[in-house]
Amino acid sequence: QVQLVESGGGLVQAGGSLRLSCAASGRTSSTYFMAWFRQAPGKEREFVARISWRGVTSYADSVKGRFTMSRDNAENTVYLQMNSLKPEDTAVYYCAAAGQGGKFDDWGQGTHVTVSS
After folding, report:
1. What is the spatial distance between Cα 3 and Cα 1, in angstroms, rounded to a whole number?
2. pLDDT confidence of residue 8
3. Which is deepest, 21, 28, 34, 36, by most CB within 10 Å?
4. What is the mean pLDDT of each run of 10 residues along the chain (117 residues)?
5. Is 75 helix (H, G, I), strand (E, B) or coil?
């Protein structure tokens, strides 16, 4: 099992930036994919971004060009740089980990991001 701890959330005005971090511990050797998901109030959890061990990234259309995911394998940490934030980005952001099969079984507790208009 992998333990994940997110940090970096907060309140920001529209157009601003935040950087989220997710530190992994435990069986990190089994982790191949790391991802960010988010859940807005009253909505289902949705995919935001994913990064492979090799650093290959993919993004939801809604965040392409604004969000950048990166990872530091030596520190077992992933980041989500969020620029040009919009009120619709307001959500709880969750970090998740998966093996090569791509099934996200390990989740963090989430960090709140609020974007004011």
Report:
1. 7
2. 97
3. 34
4. 96 98 90 96 97 95 98 93 98 96 94 97
5. helix
Closest CA to 4 of 20, 18, 23: 23
Angle at CA 59, nearest 5°, toward 87 and 110? 60
Task: Give the single-character DSSP code of 103.
Answer: -
DSSP 8-state assignment for residue 108:
-
Closest CA to 111 of 59, 60, 1, 36: 36
Q: Which amino acid is at 87?
A: P
Backbone angles phi, psi at 98, to 5 degrees: -145, 155
Residue 23 token pair: 């530190």
Strands 67-72 and 77-82: antiparallel
For 109, the token pair is 């507790």
Residues 6+ apart with CB under 8 A from 51: 33, 34, 35, 57, 69, 70, 71, 78
pLDDT value of position 12: 98
Q: Using CA atoms, how far apart are residues 17 and 25, in angstroms rounded to an integer?
A: 27
